[in-house]
Automatic annotation (TrEMBL):
Organism ancestry: Eukaryota, Sar, Alveolata, Dinophyceae, Gonyaulacales
The species this protein was found in: Pyrodinium bahamense
A GO-annotated cellular component: cytosol
EC number: 1.6.2.4
Superkingdom of origin: Eukaryota
Cofactor(s) named in the record: FAD
Name of this protein: NADPH--hemoprotein reductase
FAD-binding FR-type domain sequence ranges: 1-243
InterPro entries per the UniProt record, alphabetical: CysJ-like_FAD-binding (IPR003097), FAD-bd_FR_type (IPR017927), Flavoprot_Pyr_Nucl_cyt_Rdtase (IPR001709), FNR_nucleotide-bd (IPR039261), NADPH_Cyt_P450_Rdtase_alpha (IPR023173), OxRdtase_FAD/NAD-bd (IPR001433), Riboflavin_synthase-like_b-brl (IPR017938)
Length: 343
């Protein structure tokens, strides 16, 4: 991790420009590629402390998972989390902070197995969620039904009744979150940039929930810069590239953080034009958001327009005071005459 630039709209939402240090990594990337981020459960740490307490486990305690009785094979496909920790010593906290997807929804199958360790009425609710899709959906809607809150939602499961190995069999591993590359190696050698919007939402019972990966980035402080580490993988996206001919016209359409890959394209166009001492073809960028204040990367958009990386910048604001609602599709229709020659 190299640097994080933050912006907020004052409503608990935030967008961060993440700059990953690639200088010591031999991992090539191109504008238009994706990055798979493996985030820790930083956003869930307060709930995670309560989860471990209810489980009867100390976060610093070292344990070595063993194959449960009656289980013939622990395959990566069927029991991915248990497979990852099996036969190795870990601290309890490390497993649940960096490996276990405790922010995921408890599946109906898991509800059925957990019911064996609960008392009524919790047992009945878990059994119903296991066999009735609507009951399960209702619990997800009203409670969230996340693993990290399972002991709060079903208190009779507390006091260490649920075996650790069973949890490791039932809880998934943290799945990677995909983000678009927001930079060009031609302009930012040794770095890879992401534009990440913080996800904030509420469950049916009014509890605030935060996106695991986006909150991890947005919570990083200045003191963490250069020290924080993140596991990631570059995933090439060969079908999403700038045309090889720099004179070819292009049209880009984005809303919100969807502007990220086009930031990389703008950087690449400027860098290649400078390196080859050549002109650039026309490039239209239609960008939409709620209002002018929420438009991301405004200074960079001005620079890209001044430098010729963008020759037509069309803005669409759906909640701009004193103006009618305008979405990107509306702007395309309004400026069809200007855009048609680029097709």
């Amino acid at each position: 991790m190299l640097h994080v630039d933050k912006a907020s709209d004052g409503f608990g939402r935030a967008t961060v420009l993440v700059r990953l240090d690639m200088s010591k990594l031999r991992v090539p990337y191109k504008s238009g590629d994706h990055v798979a981020i493996q985030p820790p459960n930083t956003a869930l740490e307060p709930q995670l402390k309560k989860f471990l307490k209810a489980l009867g486990r100390d976060a610093d305690a070292i344990f070595e998972a063993k194959k449960p009785p009656g289980v013939d094979a622990v395959s990566k496909e069927r029991y991915p989390l248990l497979h990852e920790v099996l036969g190795h010593k870990h601290t309890v906290g490390n497993v649940f902070l960096t490996m276990a997807a405790v922010g995921d929804v408890v599946s109906p199958q898991a509800c059925d197995q957990l019911a064996d360790f609960a008392k009524d009425p919790d047992r009945q609710r878990l059994r119903e969620a296991a066999v009735d899709v609507d009951k399960h959906k209702e619990l997800v809607k009203t409670k969230g039904l996340q693993w990290v809150n399972i002991f709060d939602d079903f208190p009779s499961l507390k006091a260490g009744k649920v075996p650790m190995e069973l949890l490791l069999m039932l809880i998934p591993v943290i799945r990677p979150r995909l983000y678009s590359v927001a930079s060009s190696p031609a302009q930012e050698p040794g770095e890879l940039h992401l534009v990440v919007g913080r996800l904030v939402y509420k469950t049916g019972d009014g509890k605030k929930r935060l996106g695991v990966c986006s909150n991890f980035f947005s919570k990083l402080d200045v003191k963490d810069e250069g020290l924080a580490e993140v596991r990631f993988q570059v995933r090439p996206c060969t079908s999403f590239r700038l045309p090889p001919d720099l004179l070819s016209p292009i049209i880009m359409v984005a809303t919100g953080t969807g502007l990220a890959p086009f930031r990389g394209f703008m950087q690449e166009r400027l860098a290649l034009a400078k390196a080859n001492n050549c002109s650039l073809g026309p490039a239209a960028l239609i960008v939409g958001c709620k209002n002018k204040a929420e438009l991301l990367l405004q200074e960079e958009l001005k620079q890209a327009t001044a430098g010729g990386a963008v020759t037509m910048l069309l803005e669409a604001f759906s909640r701009e005071p004193g103006q009618p609602k305008c979405y990107v599709q509306d702007r395309v229709r309004q400026d069809a005459g200007k855009l048609r020659p680029l097709l």
